[in-house]
Amino acid sequence: MTSSPLSLPTGEQVAAAREHIRAFTLRTPLVRLNVDLPGTTIFLKLENLQPWGSFKIRPALNALKGLDTQLLGRGVLSASSGNFGQGLAYAARLFGVPATLAVPAAAAQTKLDALTELGAKVIRLPFDEWWTVLTTRRCAGEEGLFIHPVAEAAVLAGNATIGAEILEDLPDLDAVVAPFGGGGLICGIGSVMRRLRPTARMILVESEAAQPAAAALENGGPVPVPYLQSFVDGMGSSRVLEEMWPLLRQVVDHAACASFAQIAAAVRLLAVRHRIIAEAAGAAPLAAALAGLAGKGNIVCIVSGGNIDTSKFGAILDGQSFF
């Protein structure tokens, strides 16, 4: 769908996206974390409460809602580690069109089961082959209009609706912390902050599995980095997408890295203290904030999703070190 350079969503595009998704999504709560930290108050934006357990339903719905129905005649196709796939499959079902999802072989089983339940065709690929589908927007032998999970104008506007809600609930926020997969989430939210709350720090979080954003910021552009498959399956890649780099430069103040142990501890804390189920990527922003990587003040952590395999969740709660 994207043929011209991407730009950050405008206020008008964000307002339109809010109308597009209003009937199908939750206006998720902003909950104060029940932890005392000197000079810091952490708030949780609970996107794990969305239908199908992730913020990705927002961009997926907005992407399809803005299309001419004739373009959807052969269905939709995308590459997703699971959460965007669920959002797209749900939106496709609402529109009565088939959905095909290429997923990395290490995707969480709970996400794959949801895709099947939603009626999507699922193609599991080794990570390198999946990455090729993501970057070329083509999957051999498959038809359908390709909807990129990150680098689409409508996807960015859908993500930006989260930023609009945050500012309405907490106008005096000091920082937003979001997990980094492809950059669509932080760029969407960051577009709102740069327009309406330019003093807010925008901090992306990566893990020990891969740090392509930190490498790009250090080198002045995307460079390849090692990628380790891990229990942090909802974020991370081997390189920042070229089309996303100009947007990241505009919105990101800092790239933080949360360790596997810190992320697991954040998953446990959310479950024990707030009865919140978060997948590892969803807990990573909190892990970074608790480690002091987001600074002081009113900090909003995006709990991006809660689609974690029960076996992994149980192991984390039990304190097992399977990572």
Name the features.
6-stranded mixed beta sheet; 323 residues; 4-stranded parallel beta sheet; alpha/beta; 12 helices; 10 strands; Rossmann fold; single chain; 2 domains
Structure description:
The radius of gyration is 18 Å and the shape is globular. Strands 1-2-10-7-8-9 form a six-stranded mixed sheet, sandwiched between helices. The chain has helices at residues 11-21, 57-65, 83-95, 109-117, 127-136, 153-169, 184-196, 212-219, 245-251, 260-274, 280-290, 310-317; strands at residues 30-32, 40-46, 76-79, 99-104, 121-125, 145-146, 175-179, 201-207, 254-258, 297-303. It is built from twelve helices and ten strands. β7, α7 (184-196) and β8 form a beta-alpha-beta unit. It has 323 residues and is of the alpha/beta class. It folds into two domains: 11-54 and 154-317, Rossmann fold (3-Layer(aba) Sandwich), CATH 3.40.50; 57-146, 3-Layer(aba) Sandwich (Rossmann fold). The longest helix has 17 residues, at 153-169.
Task: Describe how the helices and strands are arranged.
Blueprint: H1 11-21, E1 30-32, E2 40-46, H2 57-65, E3 76-79, H3 83-95, E4 99-104, H4 109-117, E5 121-125, H5 127-136, E6 145-146, H6 153-169, E7 175-179, H7 184-196, E8 201-207, H8 212-219, H9 245-251, E9 254-258, H10 260-274, H11 280-290, E10 297-303, H12 310-317
Parallel strand pairs: 2-10, 3-4, 3-6, 4-5, 7-8, 7-10, 8-9
Antiparallel strand pairs: 1-2
- Helix percent reads 40-55%
pLDDT below 50 for ≥5 consecutive residues: which ranges? none
Mean pLDDT: 93
- CATH fold type of the largest domain: Rossmann fold
- What is the level-2 CATH architecture name of the largest domain? 3-Layer(aba) Sandwich
Distance between the termini: 38 Å
CA-based shape: globular
Total discrete domains = 2
The number of distinct β-strands equals 10
Q: Give the neighbour order of strands across the main sheet.
A: 1-2-10-7-8-9
Major sheet description: 6 strands, mixed
User: What portion of residues belong to β-strands?
Assistant: 15-25%
**CATH structural class of the largest domain:** Alpha Beta
The helix/strand class is alpha/beta
Radius of gyration: 18 Å
Total helices: the number is 12
**Secondary-structure element order, as H and E?**
HEEHEHEHEHEHEHEHHEHHEH
